[in-house]
Amino acid sequence: MTKPTDPGWGKSSYSNGSGGGCVEWAAAHAAAFGEVPVRDSKDVGRPGFTVGVRAWSAFVDHAKGVRP
Question: In 3D, which of 49, 57, 3 has the Cα closest to residue 24?
């Protein structure tokens, strides 16, 4: 399966247009390929990176204040 050039970026519901420090991720890409593309929402022209689904889930849980 070929990976798309635009994986379908999504933003946090806390992201806004006034320069909030948020990241974008691509959930559909994660479901299809088992890796989560991540990029800076303030500078989308710069390259992003990918992390494994489990690592992304751990990051999100930590950001929400949920500890295992």
Answer: 49
